[in-house]
Amino acid sequence: MTTFVELLLGGLSMGSVYALIALGFVVIFKATEVVNFAHASLLLAGGYVTAVLHDDIGFWPALGVGIAGAAVVGSAVEYTVMRRYRGADHSVLAIVTIGVDILLTTELTRRIGTDVLALGDPWGDKLLTVGDITIAQTRVAAFVAAALLITVFLLAFRYTTWGVSMRAAAENPQTAALMGVRLGRVSLSAWAVAGSLAAVAALFLTVFPTPGLERATSLAALKAFPAAILGGLDSTTGALAGGLIVGVTESFATGYQSDLTFLGRGFGDLAPYLVMVAVLLIRPAGLFGTKELARV
């Protein structure tokens, strides 16, 4: 029972981090109807800036610069690349984001090389023990930070002018533009928010028990993609639910790997994608996605 609870708590913690990444996918999709495959490079950029600066200016200032840096990179991609293709087919724009991801990831991995970079977090390898249950403090911090950020985002999305503009643009961009909503500004802010959330996620993906930031860290963003898809790519609530589902699924599949040897090695990495496929077979739009009806 103790193992079950520890795996559940660890899964919820990592699931909340995946939810942050998935929320970035959803924000950009709602603003532009484009699936952003460059999200992994935004995550790597934010983590890299934090790792490089923490020795010189301290952890918290470095984290702030890393978050701002990822937001700037996201905004720059939107302004210099994506805006030039406005009006193009969405599938073409998705392919463009793949090209952007290759360029950014190649440069960042060249800078990182074979090193494993520490981000200088204050939790280290400390553990929190309650009764027979032991969990890393980094996991607790990840859950608390993700919960706060997601709550702030949802409140802003619901009650602020930015949120109203975002929802209007997602609902009907042509009408929103006629009503005075500046679609370019909405798109720019969406990329900036997505970059900021990715930078925070990069922190908790690279702290204990993970050794640090490395070239393969950006692949973690791919685990959040099933979360965004199975939750519904146009649903902020779905991103949260999808992230938690993926996190718990991965945690249990990895934790009970010894009992699932008949499924082969690495089943924990594959399990989230299997859950995504199973959900899509039943609900093609995802758990909370909007169903589109077409009359012919």
From TrEMBL:
Q: How does it sit in the membrane?
A: Multi-pass membrane protein
The record's subcellular location field reads: Cell membrane
**May I ask which residue range the UniProt record assigns to the signal sequence?**
none
Give the matching InterPro entries. Answer: ABC_transp_permease, BCAA_transport_permease
Give the source lineage, highest ranks first. Answer: Bacteria, Bacillati, Actinomycetota, Actinomycetes, Kitasatosporales
Q: Which UniProt keywords apply?
A: Amino-acid transport, Cell membrane, Membrane, Transmembrane, Transmembrane helix, Transport
- Membrane-crossing segments per the record: 6-27, 59-80, 92-113, 133-157, 188-208, 270-290
Provide the primary localization: membrane
Can you tell me which family this protein belongs to?
Belongs to the binding-protein-dependent transport system permease family. LivHM subfamily.
Q: What Pfam families does the database record attribute to this sequence?
A: BPD_transp_2
Entry protein name: Branched-chain amino acid ABC transporter permease
